[in-house]
Design goal:
288 residues, D-amino Acid Aminotransferase, Chain A, domain 1, D-amino Acid Aminotransferase, Chain A, domain 2, 6-stranded antiparallel sheet, 15 strands, binds 4'-deoxy-4'-aminopyridoxal-5'-phosphate
Length: 288
């Protein structure tokens, strides 16, 4: 079934949802985006996603062409118009039509695109058995080059690491920063458990400030579990008791092997399973 796409200020048929080849979103990856889940017809953590989108845009001096309130309404309308009950929303702002030069300030109006569709999840089996991953050799973007907190349309740093993962027949790879500390996975945040304490790298290590990460930290604290933000090394990953990733698409997924080192007893651990269960309950039960 053809989708209804939000383009700029209204819903249009999928066939009409077109962007010109002179849009700097295409020519230079100049733009920002969000990926958002819908659970039971409710849009998950929508305000947090909108806030992050505005912050990313601010760093790039890109104007979001709509107020936060109107943008929330537009996301809701797009979701409803497509009858999405459990799905995924992709929200993008591109710089707009410019010349073949870099200058963003002579571009026309920025463009707003909202797509609400189904989502391709990892198979259930992967959640039960846990995932094998590798360390990427591709270093995470230096924060003085492009702050990793900016969720921009240029994902080439992550894509290079993803290619390394796929070349090694695994779905994900860990990215380290320029100092050798763990930053994040190509599309997910990193958590480990050691001696009953949950550790995650601070955002300054070069991670996107994941919305799933924030929810999982909150849920862990509600369970009176200790969560510490700390720089992690490859050694920490190899020797931890449990390892899991968090992200909008992956939710909470256990890692059972990295670079040939088995984690714990080779199965997703008890903290991972507890937090996955709590996350599921929270996501499916929470209002808008
Ligand atoms: N890091 C990167 C690089 C990401 O692209 C994402 C989102 N897919 C995440 C972390 C997780 O963030 P969130 O929980 O907000 O989806």
């Amino acid at each position: 079934m053809a989708l209804k796409i939000w383009l700029d200020d209204k819903l249009v048929d999928e066939a009409e949802a077109k962007i010109t080849v002179f849009d700097h979103g295409l020519l230079y990856g100049d733009g920002v985006f969000e990926g958002i889940r819908v659970y039971n017809s409710k849009i998950f953590e929508l305000e947090a996603h909108i806030k992050r989108l505005y912050e990313s845009a601010k760093v790039l001096r890109l104007e979001v062409p709509m107020s936060k309130g109107k943008l929330i309404k537009a996301v809701e309308k797009t979701t409803e118009a497509n009858g999405v009950i459990d799905g995924y929303i992709r929200l993008l702002v591109t710089r707009g039509v410019g010349t073949l030069g870099l200058n963003p300030f002579i571009c026309g109006d920025s463009r707003l695109i909202i797509i609400a569709d189904n989502i391709q999840l990892y198979p259930e089996e992967l959640y039960e058995k846990g995932m094998e991953i590798i360390s990427a050799t591709t270093v995470r973007n230096h924060p003085l080059a492009i702050p990793p907190q900016v969720k921009s349309l240029n994902y080439l740093n992550n894509i290079l690491a993803k290619i390394e993962a796929l070349d090694n027949d695994v779905p994900e790879a860990i990215m380290y920063n320029h100092e050798g500390y763990v930053a994040e996975a190509t599309g997910d945040n990193v958590f480990i458990v050691k001696n009953g304490v949950i550790y995650t790298p601070p955002v300054e290590a070069g991670a996107l400030e994941g919305i799933t990460r924030a929810v999982v930290i909150r849920l862990a604290k509600e369970e009176k579990l200790e969560v510490v933000e700390k720089n992690l090394t490859r050694f920490d990953l190899y020797t931890c008791d449990e390892f899991f990733l968090t992200g909008t698409a992956a939710e909470v997924i256990g890692i059972v092997e990295i670079d040939g080192r088995v984690i714990g007893d080779g199965k997703p651990g008890s903290y991972t399973l507890l937090l996955r269960k709590k996350f599921f309950k929270y996501a499916h039960g929470k209002g808008k």
